[in-house]
Design a protein that fits this description.
By secondary structure, the protein is of the alpha+beta class. The chain is 36% helix and 15% strand.
Length: 727
């Protein structure tokens, strides 16, 4: 796990006064005060005493940190960062920029971005190819820029009269010794795709997050959150690019994202245990994976789907290595390592595997097939590392790690392509708001065909049109209030067919699949949060655009948790579809193009064709018939007994969020094959696992010469105090 952390302190002339419980702070012996730094660059904070009393040189700093700059507002990088992943440029003594991650900008471009940020143009810091976090300091003003998708979030918390910030929430929670925010966990389970319910909260009380597409601006301890991305008005639609120009923009952004990784320095894994030699039935790749390390160089997933195949073919076809055919140029013979996961427990994947094999016949690719049996099913392994936040991917992280162990030190994944390219059903309402009714016919007809023989193809388009028109005419506040009322009187309908799922998604908000198992008190608390958000100003986004952005943020957050849970040492996962420039290019696609059936495959086919890749296998872009639900249900059936035991005395019940008996009954029903929302069970199980790992941890993320500090959630799980008639 890699993160950065820093803080912004108040001015030295205002550093007299008390903070915290029984604490006071003043000016240190070096004249820096509570956040000042000495020659070692560590922050100082005072102990209990009189107002203005000099501190005793007590220091606090992250464990295993690398100081990027200090005095008076320090910044650290923590974790196994590569040398080329940390870049700093400075102009003068008080103007500097730190970029952490994969960034293709040159030093000169970084300086130009720093000059632009000094003048207030923050968007320049987010416009370089790659995935990174930028921190700019101009005098005492610090700007931390988050990304558009939410895969690289920024958190902050008030601390000692100033503001501490970081790219992980748990270190900040340790810093302030935070307790659990039960209301956030309830909202995360009840409405995971509703930003109005989640707000800016995190699982830790007192730690906040900035929304995607925003930046945190700190001025001597005070904080401001500002957006750097323009939005179109609700009354007037933004001018749309022609379809051909928009697809060209997606191609340029994807090629730039892939090239940013290819031009970065190559990395090999750290020293592994010695190879024991030939083993019957195991090749070099399998023996290396068994020793726990990735292969050197560049690799990619090759699942047979269009997203992963596009990245693999782009990475192998761009000039340079990998993808150099044997005997041609320098570095000849280094091919892209393409990894395909073959789940032996889920039938119906033969077509996808054949398609992946046909793509891997490219001489620039080296194909490796990783097989998995019952031991790789979801829920088969409930052990794992502690992640920053809970996420449904925790139940399948060992399954993904099995595939990634056979990958490369830099591994491409197609994660996020569906969220940035496909159309959310609510975008049909945006088409009606733009008076483009004719573009609703093809998606409505496709939904009628996907609904099966029971769906009447004559009435389905009319039903979809009515639902889209109702959403287009529903004000934002009315939609939020309706969702809050629905939580107070919960009536959950199981949406199983594509038609019913799309119709349910044609709303401003809707409860998540786990809401049906929450207690009435928890649902009431989430309803209160929704009602409070309805009184705030409405967002400057149309309903479809807002719902699509929320779904992307939810997916990007879970992808971040998956990276932490399935992390392989010395390996970097790259998701170019979640890069800022790729997200921007995909948002520029016209709605009329995006909502058409098969739009994602057509767009990626055009991207490859324009890049010189035209020989694609038959069935390219066909929807997968092997659903992940089959693997989830098989995993529930195999691990039913351990999962039922997990909820014998669950921490979620101690928090007042669920009734253990109800969840145990749902697990048994899902294992028996009854129609139970599997996504909702994954949310509950992953949250329970995360809580147990959080309470089982020892130590803290901070050290120093100060008194021993408590870790976050040291008091365990306690139910929230709700007002009663007596109180």
């Amino acid at each position: 796990m890699r993160w950065l952390v820093g803080w912004s302190s108040v001015a030295a002339s205002f550093r007299t006064g008390s903070y915290g419980a029984g604490g006071a702070y003043g000016t240190g012996s070096d004249g820096t005060g509570p956040y000042g730094t000495g020659s070692d660059g560590t922050g100082r904070y005072g102990s209990a005493g009189a107002v203005g009393e000099p501190d005793e040189g007590r220091t606090v700093h992250p464990v295993g940190a690398q100081l990027l700059w200090g005095d008076p507002d320090p910044l650290w990088a923590v974790g196994d960062w590569r040398p080329d992943e940390i870049r700093t440029v400075s102009v003068g003594t008080d103007t500097r920029l730190a970029v952490l991650g994969c960034c293709a900008a040159t030093d000169e471009e970084l300086k130009v971005g720093l000059f632009a940020a000094r003048g207030g143009a923050l968007r320049h810091l987010s416009a370089w190819p790659g995935s990174y976090t930028a921190v700019a300091q101009v005098a005492r003003r610090i700007t931390v820029v988050g990304d558009l998708a939410g895969a690289r979030p920024v958190f902050y918390t008030p601390w000692a009269g100033g503001t501490a910030y970081g790219t992980a929430a748990l270190p900040l929670a340790d810093l302030i010794e935070a307790q659990l925010d039960i209301g956030h966990l309830a909202a995360l389970l009840a409405c995971p795709d509703v930003p109005e319910a989640l707000g800016d909260s995190t699982p830790y009380a007192g730690v906040r997050r900035i929304p995607p597409g925003h930046a945190l601006v700190l001025r001597e301890g005070s904080r401001e959150i500002t957006g750097y991305e323009p939005f179109a008005s609700l009354a007037v639609a933004a001018p749309q690019l022609p379809p051909a120009a928009a697809v060209d923009g997606v191609r340029d952004a994807l090629v730039g994202a892939v090239r940013a990784r290819l031009t970065a320095p190559r990395h090999a894994p750290e020293t592994l245990p010695p190879d024991p030699g030939p083993v019957p039935g195991m090749g070099p790749a399998e023996r290396r994976a068994a020793r726990g390390g990735p292969a050197p160089g560049i690799g990619a997933d090759l699942s047979g789907g269009p997203a992963s195949a596009t990245l693999a073919l782009l990475a192998a076809g761009l000039p340079g290595v990998p993808g150099t055919v044997l005997g041609h140029g320098t570095g000849a013979g280094e091919r892209l390592l393409a990894v395909t996961f073959n789940d032996l427990t889920v039938p119906g994947r033969r077509t996808e595997l054949e398609r992946a094999g046909a793509i891997a016949a490219n001489p620039r690719l080296h194909h490796v097939v990783v097989t998995g049996g019952e031991e790789s099913l979801p829920y088969a392994d409930l052990e794992g590392p502690l992640t920053d936040e809970p996420g449904p991917s925790l139940v399948a992280a060992p399954r993904h790690r099995r595939r990634l162990l056979s990958g490369s030190a830099d591994h491409f994944t197609g994660s996020g392509a569906r969220q940035v390219l496909d159309a959310h059903p609510a975008r049909l309402a945006d088409l009606l708001m733009d008076r483009q009714r004719r573009h609703l016919l093809r998606p409505a007809t496709a939904l009628a065909k996907a609904g099966g023989p029971s769906a009447n193809s004559l009435f389905v388009p009319l039903t979809v049109y009515r639902a889209a028109r109702r959403l287009a005419r529903t004000p934002y506040r009315t939609g939020i209030e309706s969702a809050a009322d629905a939580l107070r009187e919960p009536r959950f309908d199981d949406a199983t067919s594509p038609l019913s799922i799309s119709l349910a998604a044609l709303s401003w908000t809707r409860p998540g699949p786990a809401a049906r198992w929450l207690t009435g008190e928890a649902l009431a608390d989430v309803s209160v949060r929704l009602m409070a958000s309805a009184t705030r100003p409405a967002p400057s986004q149309r309903p479809g655009e807002a719902r699509a952005s929320a779904a992307l943020a939810r997916y990007a957050s879970d992808h971040r948790i998956l990276e932490q849970a399935a992390e392989v040492r010395s390996q970097r996962l790259h998701a170019p579809f979640l890069d800022n420039q790729v997200v921007r290019a995909c948002r520029a696609l016209p709605e009329s193009l995006r909502v058409q059936p098969g739009a994602r495959a057509d767009i990626l086919r055009t991207v490859l064709s324009a890049s010189g890749v035209r020989d694609l296998p038959a069935g390219w872009g066909a929807p997968s018939h092997a659903s992940s639900a089959a693997a989830s249900r098989a995993g529930l059936r195999q691990s039913a007994d351990p999962l039922v035991s997990l909820f014998d005395a669950p921490l979620l019940a101690d928090a007042g969020l669920i009734e253990a008996r109800t969840v145990r009954k749902a697990v048994r029903a899902a294992a028996a094959g009854e129609p139970v929302p599997l996504d909702g069970l994954a949310d509950l199980i992953s949250t329970e696992l995360w809580l147990r790992r959080l309470l089982a941890r020892r130590g803290t993320c901070w050290t120093g010469t100060a008194a021993p500090r408590q870790r976050a959630v040291a008091g365990g799980v306690t139910p929230p105090r709700r007002p009663t008639l007596r109180s």
